[in-house]
Amino acid sequence: MSRLNHETNEWHCKVVLFGPPTRNAVKLAAQLVTAIPLAEREVTWDSPPTDEPTLVARYRPANATLGDINPVYMLHALRSAGSTAADRQHVLHNTDGVILLLDLESEEQSIFAERELERFLSTYGKTIASMPVILLGASPLDDGQQARLNANSLAYFAAENATTLQRVLSTLASGLEEDSGLAGIGFDLDDFDNDGSAVDLDDIEFDDLHAYDDDELK
After folding, report:
1. By the 8 A CB rule, do 45 and 57 touch?
2. DSSP structural state of residue 76
3. What is the pTM of this model?
4. Is the Cβ–Cβ distance between 13 and 74 less than 8 Å?
5. Residues forming a β-bridge with 14
6. How far apart are the first and last CA of the chain?
7. Is the pLDDT at 46 greater than 50, yes or no?
8. Per-residue confidence at 155, pLDDT binned at 50, 70, 90?
9. For helices 23-34 and 162-180, angle between their N-to-C axes, nearest 10 degrees
10. Beta-strand runs (E) in 7-132
11. Percent helix, strand, coil in the chain (nearest 5)?
């Protein structure tokens, strides 16, 4: 649930990176976070408790303001493959938007994850249709995959480069703005300095989101 912090003039929104409990889904989450320009990314999962399944990164768009209010997107992700259904349900509590991660190498699990997302959201009185939800996969969908994996015709992005991944967040921010009734949320990709965010997506090869060394991205 989004909330306004009057002391810091920040508008906090919770975004969940949700997907099947597979290595490829975890990799997509890592790619999305590491594509955010370094100056706008505050990674807070450097030393998470070993028993904490959820990691959080704060994303603060440099050029996104609402008057004197600064939006802060709290990106929640499960830290490793093999997460439990209970953990996947819990992470969706009070979420404002979802990026649904599709594992194109495991379509059955991705289809199940979308059904699971709908079922878990319903326990909190929400639906996929009632909130911003975007699909993210490793590559463009062909017609067959579109029919199987995106029957609801949601916005879909392929994680082909850092700019595309940044557009995922831009699109989600626009949806959150529309849902909230506020104005001025979002960011202009043309203003980004991509020198600090050019990441070789193929180099991210690990099971655990906490495994990457942020210094390598500078």
Report:
1. yes
2. E
3. 0.78
4. yes
5. 74
6. 33
7. yes
8. very high
9. 80
10. 10-18, 41-43, 54-59, 70-78, 97-101
11. 40, 20, 40
